[in-house]
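Forum > Structural Biology > Help requests

Title: Can anyone predict the 3D structure of DMSO/TMAO reductase YedYZ, molybdopterin-dependent catalytic subunit?

Hi all, first post here. I have the sequence for DMSO/TMAO reductase YedYZ, molybdopterin-dependent catalytic subunit but no way to get a structure on my laptop. I'd be grateful if someone could post the structure tokens.
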Amino acid sequence: MPWRRRDVLRWLAGGAIGAAAAACARRLPSPEISPEATPPPTRIPVWLPGPERWEIASPVPITPTREFFEVKYSTIPRVDVETWALEITGEVERPLRLTYPELLAMPAVIEMRTLECISNPVGGDLIGNAVWKGVRMADLLAMAGARATAQEVVLHAADGYHTSIPVELARDPHSLLAYMMNGEVLPLEHGFPLRALWPGRYGMKQPKWITRIELIRGEHIGYWEAQGWSKEAIIQPNSRIDAPRPGMLPPQPVEIYGIAFSGPVGIERVEVSTDDGRTWMEAELIRGPTPYVWTVWRYRWERPEEGEHVLRARVVQRDGRTQPRGRGRLLGGTFPDGTDEQHAVRVVIQRGG
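Reply #1:
Sure, ran it for you. Structure tokens for DMSO/TMAO reductase YedYZ, molybdopterin-dependent catalytic subunit below:
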């Protein structure tokens, strides 16, 4: 049975904070956004199997693979691609066993996608944006003949990790099994030979090193879900202030900018406050190609007055939901559903600062 919110205190008494925080064990630098008014598009060359080559032009930053945050459940498994195969079993008419070359031979999809860890704290860097190539999960379900009795899709990984998603989400045209990242074969630390990408869900639902997919009736409780984390893991609205950093600034116009991300509802606008939330101004947005890609936002603070100021940023979703102020919740507000709390930066406007 999954743990309930009322069990959290008992769970903490068992010393589980360290295990929960380890859901995203490593942090790497986030890409810096140009302070210019209109940053140039990022162009990244992407090589496909065979002689084909292409480029993507993006108005939002693409995180270099070497800087992309890493998430692991235990140790990174060593997968022998010569013997590896993807199995699809359970509530299907035609169980499948697909080798790596057979997957590469299937019709491919290339998409930009932002990934965020459910443990990403307010203002955190456990988020990154990349270009991925893979196959649609819906195509595999069709090949296997998914039965109408199937309710969930359970994913099993080579490191022992397991989780599940609803069959309806697996059929979404943006649900992919990826084998390339930023134009290269998927690196081992990011899931080689195969990882999942589901739209609008946190990384805990998108396992790496996939070996088996099982369609089941009823409900499956995954590894992190059994420890109290969200079963749905739907991405919460998130805005981060990348500049300015906390500290002193001279009394001149200030470029305030950062990134924002949200779930499938999408971002209507990003608002910025320079007076700790008493008043709000709308920021300029530079959107990615889909709602599943982060948005760059910026606001020019024309006449900052001398003294101390608390800068805040908040997302307003298309359904009207707005990021709240911090409430001092467990694990920096991330447990159990991920945080939606506003990021705040304290600055002092001072001559000679």
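Residues 137-144 form the longest helix (8 residues). The helical segments are 8-13, 17-21, 100-104, 137-144, 167-170.
Shout if anything looks off.
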